[in-house]
Amino acid sequence: MSKITPQPGIMDIALYQGGASHIAGVPNAVKLSSNENPFGPSEAAREAYRKAGFDLHRYPSTDHAALRAAIAEMHILDADRIICGAGSDEIITFLCQAYAGPGDEVIHTEHGFAMYRICALAAGATPVEVPERERITDVDAILAACTARTRLVFIANPNNPTGTMVGGAELERLAAGLPEHVLLVLDGAYAEYVEGYDGGARLVDARENVVMTRTFSKLYGLGGLRIGWGYGPSHVMDVLARVRGPFNLSQSALVTAEAAVRDRGWADKCREDNTRMRAWLAEALAEHGVPSDTSCANFILARFANQAEAEACDDFLKAEGLIVRRVGGYNLPNCLRITVGDEPSCRRVAHAVGQFMKVAR
Ligand SMILES: *Cc1c(COP(=O)(O)O)cnc(C)c1O
């Protein structure tokens, strides 16, 4: 046994399982396991990325001013209270690092995103899982779980992997009901998929205890570039700015994200396409006897009779070249999370699930 040991909590972290992207022996598999935009980034974003290739010898901007200004303009926010990170994962990491340590508690929901627990443990804090109500965030259960040790509450809205969300009045009630020493984090990774939803921005503006995180990885189709951002009250942004590395984002990422956020047409097209295909896929699966909650994001949580049936369906889909996500690690062993792909992919999935269900029951 080595005497060189990590900080407490680190070895309790289960390694993050990313969505698979290949199937052995299947050359043209369709990846529907990581909630990626099937159409990728906008042409304007691709062009900005190509151009950035000529300046790779230059250090990037440290204050991210141009990108923050673009985000502020497009989302109608205060640019001074935006922070950019290597994916919103990095913003989640900053929040845990800055606000939670040994002896502190970090609340996440029963089927909440895995990074909350990972980042809490990495900071030495104790993750606390709070039950949901039928796969929906339960505000009362969260309020009841708060203690003198609670520092952070993480909620993804819409949530991954359930796809469900809670309304503005519930979020307001939660923010207002939390003890004074608790910071509420609204993870808006899928906010862009909800027409007219601001991800919690107005609640951030109205209060001192709410932070919002957002990403370019989902609707904007830039998961490979690692870029996200956060928005919060000045006192929190001042803290996060101190733990952020000065060169945490490459210039390629900064200019590409700027072009992406300014291309409203592409974002609208992708949202509309997702809304249409999501409804189609949910209905097709339901017709085959596989129900799902109404999803507000770019994936569907398909519910099967039990774990064995879900896993058998996953195996069947894999053999058909379709990669979806098992979510046993999210306390949902009888479910599969299926990203809404382009129309041909959705048709393939629906057909394959139908074939499977014919023999399964
Ligand atoms: C995908 C996802 C993120 C963010 O990912 P980044 O690529 O790090 O921006 C954050 N929260 C949830 C709930 C997600 O599903």
Keywords:
361 residues, alpha/beta, Aspartate Aminotransferase, domain 1, Aspartate Aminotransferase, domain 2, seven-stranded mixed beta sheet, three-stranded antiparallel beta sheet, globular, binds pyridoxal-5'-phosphate
Tell me briefly what this model is.
The chain has 361 residues and is of the alpha/beta class.
What does this structure look like?
This protein has two domains: 10-40 and 265-360, Aspartate Aminotransferase, domain 1 (Alpha-Beta Complex), CATH 3.90.1150.10; 43-263, Aspartate Aminotransferase, domain 2 (3-Layer(aba) Sandwich), CATH 3.40.640. Helix 1 runs antiparallel to helix 9 (251-262) and helix 5 (139-145) runs parallel beside helix 6. It is globular, with a radius of gyration of 20 Å. The protein has 361 residues and is of the alpha/beta class. Helices cover 40% and strands 14% of the residues. Bound molecules: pyridoxal-5'-phosphate. Pyridoxal-5'-phosphate binds at residues 87-89, 113, 156, 160, 187, 189, 215, 217-218, 223, 228.
